[in-house]
Amino acid sequence: MRMRLTPINWFTLLALIAAGLILGLPPDPHTVQQLHTSDAAYRLALFALLIPYILIWYAGFYAFSKLQEYSRQLKGAKDEAAFQRLTLGMGTLAFSLVIPTIVSLILNNAVRACWSTPYAVRSRPLT
Predict the structure, then answer these.
(1) Contact 64, 92 (CB under 8 A)
(2) Taking a C-beta distance cutoff of 8 angstroms, is the pair 22, 50 a contact?
(3) Contact 50, 19 (CB under 8 A)
(4) I want to staple 64 with a disulfide (CB 3.0 to 4.6 A). Which of 14, 47, 86, 94 is the partner?
């Protein structure tokens, strides 16, 4: 029998991945230098900014979870198909809130690591 993750388990997993990426990936040295701060303070600020995102993500996954529970109880009812589509839409919304953040964290770090010189040149304003 295959074990399926509940929406709340998905939320927990994805929130931990996002927090791990923020705390684990090295910050952009140019940004840290511009802000006149340390790496640890920069990571702490990013983590503090992640907290409201996590609360919004939780609301989306909680709604997805409750809709999933309710639509399972409607087996054979005339509204079953409509609630299944509504549940699918809420699940898509919940995942689409989290996935871009995680992809952005990974890609920004990859761009910085692979193309550090062109990135630094482009990120400075032209004077």
Answers:
(1) no
(2) yes
(3) yes
(4) 94
Contact in structure between 109 and 23 (CB atoms under 8 Å): no
Give every CB contact of residue 118 below 8 A, 6+ residues apart in sequence: none
* Paired tokens of 122: 């482009």
Q: What is the value of pTM for the model shown?
A: 0.81
3-state secondary structure at position 36: coil
Residue ranges per structural domain of the chain: 52-119
pLDDT in tens, 36-93: 999 999 999 999 999 999 999 999 999 999 999 999 998 888 988 999 999 999 999 9
Place of tokens 């923020």: 22
